[in-house]
Amino acid sequence: MIQKYMDLSHIQTESPVSLGAFGGSNGQESLAVNSRYFTRNGRPVFPIMGEFHFSRYPAAYWEESLQKIRAGGIQVVASYVIWIHHEEEQNVFEWSGSKDLNKFVRLCQKTGLRVLLRIGPWSHGECRNGGFPDWLVHAGVPLRESNPQYLAHVKRFYAQIYEQVKGLFFAEGGPIVGVQIENEYGHCGGLQGEPGIAHIKTLKQMAVEIGFVTPFYTSTGWGNGVVVEDETLPVLGGYAEAPWDQHTDERKAAREYLFTPIHRETDIGTDLSDGMSGEYAYDISRYPYLTAELGGGLEPTHHRRPIVSADDTGALVHAFLGSGANLLGYYMYHGGTNPAGKFSTLQESRATGYLNDVPEYSYDFQAPIGEYGQLHESYSRLKAYHLFLQDFGEEMALSSCCLPEDNAADAEDMDSLRYCARYGAKGGFLFLSNYQRRRHMAEKQDVNITVNTANGTYAFEHIALPDGRYVFYPFEMDLDGITLASATAQPLCRIRNSGQTTFVFFADEDTPAIFRFRAETVRPDSVGGGMCFTEKDILGLRVVPEAFAKALELTGVDGISVRLLVIRRADAYRAWKVGERGEQYLILTDAAVRQENDRLVLSSTRQRTDLFSYPAFPEKASAVFQAAGTYGDFAGGVLHFPDAMCSPFVSVQAAEKTADGAMEYTLSVKRSCGAAVDDDFLTIRFAGDRAKLFIDGAVAADWFYTGTGWVVGLKRFSTLEGRSLHLRIEPLKDTDKVFLEKKPAFENGVACMLRDIRITPEYVCRLPIAHTKP
């Protein structure tokens, strides 16, 4: 048994200090920020931001990807405008096709997403020269300094960007709410101190004079990054690993999985930081805790190839949220592919003076949405947090991190309890974590924590924390007039439909889901279902999470009724919230769900999958969805995707070993046909150093071996019939200095072979559901 006590009764949250230099209005809404959180029309908000590089993804599929991004709970899309992608040849700018910034920003607005543009001029982003064109690098001009020649080039580039987005800024009714100036400046290159501040001021002034007028301007805040007081907001980050580290040994346990007041990030960009410390060159108390580079995954380097699991990402976000972050910003949220260059490949490489080699084309990043638009498992982990923050972001934004003295402070400590609370004017949340990447945490059973505030004392009892679990529980939470004093279930979202509000929670089966309500706020005779109990001033419920639960109804003393729905954790990860205010639905399905105007678009690599909705959809069964009945308060049935007109097929026609020891395979690939299939995914499992897929002799895709399957989406390549497809696998030796978490089997000291190749169709259908506009 573990017993802990947290006394928050003397916590006095300081009133936030307005940062009046930031903010703006478009006549209908106003945005601002203070020393603790963002506001919209004067009310606290908790934004969620995801990085998606438009120039690394085919323009034909931007809109569907943006719909997936929004369905995952993202509200703001961040994107670099990578200089070398647009002016590889001096004075020849490219703003069409996948480089059409204007179209991309307009599609963000159409999809209901805001935009933060990262205009550089230096980006990093694993780009060649950090995004600088070769002609600029070789111009003999000092870069990233305030000299006239360099600034003249930057001004011309900024002016070109502005021409693409003018009329799309927030004050003009557009979606662009922020601009980031430079990147990692003062940490990865650039100047520090007053010269660095002067340079960032110069770049910002130049941008504003050109027309980049937005509510918010940001700059990198970690590792002595240059932040200009009252002119740029510092943004922070943290990753599960550091593939840019130059050694190939196992790394020490990552501190990013600890609860700390503000993460002093020491690992980002250490390949370019010349050993600089992780301290901050500004007063952190003046600014809210904002992140822009929470690792949605990681890009492997040739010498370090970590595998980022869904829980690696989920637990990382959990730690930052518990530690007080009031903006979750992911790098990357959607992967992509480097465009082909005119004169060279466009990736970071040792050949161009950087310390890392990364894939020439693949920028999958193991992100929640992959290189080909496929949803990775981390997408569902993060969505559970995003659904919550969309509905209860104000409560979270108003709360501050409260760390107990005995909270574990050593990432290698597998035995001590990792816990903290966030508490504020609208309640609080108890955070617990028993997760450490690539370590085994000691199992902690029967954890009991008492939280004392000025308003009451709350018991969280009999909590099970097996290795790998991370969870947060609410206290002093308002449920439309009924006060939830505490609960050992995690809040997921709120569903409003036909005048009825349902609060959805999820719970673990090995921890009793106990809800305690303040008795003076709820009618005791109104509670239906569950196992009721009473304590002093408390009306309690014990609820068993079920696959298809029935909602419990509660009525407040004001006569307003709400419903309480408790589902299992596994179902929370396959939950989707669709609809608009007043007619919302909770969907449970393994299919991917996104909204396209007044239709739901569902996709799956399984031709048959279940689908359950709470409450029931108003439409009757269709040819695609066959209703099967009622399960608890869910209406469910089978989603049966139509057959493809023809099935996909892949086979190996020939294999040959080359003089340099590589293996080359001739492939025959036939794609699915018909509207029922949206894409065909080629999954290639191989052992070796790296692999490349060639179509008609040109590299179409590449991948570093990590021990996981390499997935290639084929729809972007149009027809493949009659075209030459070859797969080349280069050898990996057991003496090569490469860090691998999953090593291949070596034969005579070498691994170089194709183990398996298969093709899987992704089925798609559209369900017209009334009142589900995004």
TrEMBL record:
Start and end residues of each Glycoside hydrolase 35 catalytic domain: 38-386
Keywords assigned by UniProt, alphabetized: Glycosidase, Hydrolase
Catalysed reaction equations from the record: Hydrolysis of terminal non-reducing beta-D-galactose residues in beta-D-galactosides
Gene Ontology molecular function: beta-galactosidase activity
InterPro entries referenced in this protein's UniProt entry, alphabetically: GH, Gly_Hdrlase_35_cat, Glyco_hydro_35_CS, Glycoside_Hdrlase_35
Family according to the record: Belongs to the glycosyl hydrolase 35 family.
Protein name: Beta-galactosidase
The species this protein was found in: Ethanoligenens harbinense (strain DSM 18485 / JCM 12961 / CGMCC 1.5033 / YUAN-3)
